[in-house]
Write a sequence for this structure.
């Protein structure tokens, strides 16, 4: 049942728990190397063979049999990519980094400790079996788990997959997200404003943030403040997306059509209002087809709070990861007041582990907030947090 009583607002952790309980993780699909970066592994990546496959040299130098005393006659040159013949007893081969250790040899002498004369190589250094040799399987063994299910496939992870000779991996399907902006006062950037209008900015905030978190943005559309337009836009969006995010129109004013529209579409309420400041008026529900619907408030910095504390976690849960937001501990540079019943979430500048505020009263002003790179989380409490207090902050992309 919906209610507007302030005491009904729920802690954000509880809101995240309700979202996580309501969603079904997305199916897996096979993805080629070129498209893998930024995806989430749906299955472990298993090494198909030992790596390296052949013992090879870690240095440019000479390869010898450590049991045979030098000087050694230089009988061959082994470059990276060569498939060398066995080394005859008492001989050496010049070898490049990555060159295969030939049969009959087991140690590399770095070129820096060698001297060459009359086609022979000598060294004053101790020659130990295995020196500067990268053994078979030193990196990974056939059957080893190289990346676990749920891993974010960073460019380095994708390189590791390529290095195993694999051309694809099993990934979680990208969440499909539809973004609706409600408000008759909104006009697209680039359009001159007449009195009363403002430029629409929430859709780019939501789209860019969720794209960074691996989502496919399927629709971005503006919705007029009428019951019919709101209902139609949500019906279309729900049919096509895993997550529908709207901004604005979620409060209790005469032009706020989001909640009634969603209820008329059979969307089941998960919660209404979260215990944050700003960002309190959020309506969240689950559509009959399982689509998660989140109605965020229109104020851009309220929208930001729900985006990072609810939607990014929802995306994480949909892709099989833990739904907690990713936070970093950071030190407050100036004191800040807590709120007794609401988590304050304030854009700040995070630099060298220190959180600086944007200036008195600036936290609700979008242009100034554009300089922020973290959302500082001021825990619920009755006092003032002193300068130097360590709190959590969500990095903003
Ligand atoms: P609402 O939640 O619809 O009452 O909107 C709250 C405030 O946020 C109003 O001042 C709106 O003009 C503003 N707002 C709503 N949607 C957007 C948007 N997409 N971009 C920028 N500002 C918005
Ligand atoms: Mg509005």
């Amino acid at each position: 049942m919906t209610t507007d009583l302030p005491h009904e607002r729920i802690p954000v952790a509880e809101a995240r728990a309700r979202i996580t309980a309501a969603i079904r993780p997305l199916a897996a699909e096979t993805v080629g190397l070129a498209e893998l970066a930024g995806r989430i592994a749906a299955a472990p990546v298993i090494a198909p063979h030992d790596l390296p496959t052949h013992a090879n040299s870690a240095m440019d130098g000479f390869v010898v049999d450590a049991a045979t005393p030098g000087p050694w006659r230089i009988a061959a040159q082994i470059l990276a990519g060569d498939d060398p013949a066995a080394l005859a007893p008492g001989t050496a081969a010049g070898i490049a980094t990555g060159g295969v250790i030939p049969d009959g040899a087991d140690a590399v002498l770095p070129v820096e400790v060698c001297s060459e004369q009359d086609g022979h190589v000598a060294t004053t250094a101790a020659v130990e079996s295995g020196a500067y040799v990268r053994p078979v399987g030193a990196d990974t063994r056939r059957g080893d788990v190289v990346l676990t299910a749920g891993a974010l496939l960073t460019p380095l992870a994708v390189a590791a997959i390529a290095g195993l000779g694999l051309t694809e991996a099993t990934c979680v399907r990208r969440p499909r997200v539809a973004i609706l902006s409600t408000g008759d006062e909104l006009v697209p950037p680039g359009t001159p404003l007449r009195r009363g209008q403002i430029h629409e900015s929430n859709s780019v905030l939501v789209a860019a943030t969720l794209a960074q978190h691996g989502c496919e943005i399927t629709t971005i559309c503006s919705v007029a403040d009428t019951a019919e337009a709101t209902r139609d836009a949500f019906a279309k969006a729900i049919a096509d997306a895993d997550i529908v995010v709207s901004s604005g129109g979620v409060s209790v004013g005469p032009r706020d059509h989001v909640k009634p529209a969603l209820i008329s579409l059979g969307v089941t309420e998960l919660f209404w209002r979260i215990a944050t400041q700003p960002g309190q008026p959020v309506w969240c529900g689950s559509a009959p087809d399982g689509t998660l619907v989140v109605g965020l408030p229109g104020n851009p910095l309220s929208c930001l709070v729900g985006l990072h504390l609810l939607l990014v976690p929802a995306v994480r849960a949909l892709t099989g990861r833990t739904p907690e937001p990713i936070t970093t501990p950071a030190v407050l540079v100036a004191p800040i007041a807590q709120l007794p019943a609401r988590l304050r979430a304030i854009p700040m500048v995070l630099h060298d582990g220190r959180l600086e505020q944007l200036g008195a009263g600036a936290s609700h002003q979008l242009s100034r907030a554009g300089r922020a790179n973290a959302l500082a989380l001021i825990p619920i409490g009755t006092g003032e947090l002193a300068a130097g207090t360590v709190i959590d902050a969500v990095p903003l992309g």
About this structure: The chain has a mean pLDDT of 95. The first helix runs from residue 12 to 22. The two ends are 36 Å apart (CA to CA). The pocket of magnesium ion (ligand 2) is lined by residues 182-183, 248-249, 255, 298 (CB under 6 Å).
